[in-house]
Amino acid sequence: MKNPIQAMFEAGIIERTDFPPESRYHGIPTAQVTGPDGQPVSCLKRRLSPPPEEFALRHLRETKQGERLDRIAAAETGDPEMFWLLMDANGALWAEDLEEPETAIRITWPRGVPAPPEE
């Protein structure tokens, strides 16, 4: 079976970048600079964190003593590496900012996905 991500790249559905689609750096442009040795070096242009208001709230979760953001991400999204989505949705620069006991963490829909209508 063909890798589905590779198939999407080939079909032009996903833009090919140096970072996979689940990375916070996917879609961020790169630049070429010349290193001190004269060799070209690729570097990532600046990534600006989106405003938390761009994330529709699913629910709030209060952290418990000893909880880590990667484990919260695993419980909420199924992937511990998606902790950065929680950071973006809560306006945090450091994971530790959201790991303090009794911190209310906004669990949101992905950026740009509106909350489903209430029934």
Can you give a write-up of this model?
This protein is of the alpha+beta class and 119 residues long. The chain contains three helices and four strands, in the order αβββααβ. It has helices at 4-11, 69-77, 83-89; strands at 30-34, 40-44, 57-62, 104-108. The strands form two sheets. Strands 1-2 form a two-stranded antiparallel sheet. It has a two-stranded antiparallel ribbon with strand order 3-4. The radius of gyration is 18 Å and the shape is globular.
Overall geometric form: globular
- Helix percentage: 10-25%
User: Overall pLDDT, averaged?
Assistant: 84
> What are the low-pLDDT stretches, counting only 5+ consecutive residues below 50?
none
Distance between the termini: 40 Å
**Major sheet summary line:** 2 strands, antiparallel
Radius of gyration: 18 Å
Q: Tell me how many strands there are.
A: 4
* Individual helix count: 3
Structural class: alpha+beta
Beta-strand residue percentage: 15-25%
Order of helices and strands: HEEEHHE
Strand arrangement, largest sheet? Answer: 1-2
Provide a brief overview of the structure.
This protein is 20% helix and 18% strand. The protein has helices at residues 4-11, 69-77, 83-89; strands spanning 30-34, 40-44, 57-62, 104-108. The strands form two sheets. A two-stranded antiparallel ribbon has the order 1-2. Strands 3-4 form a two-stranded antiparallel sheet.
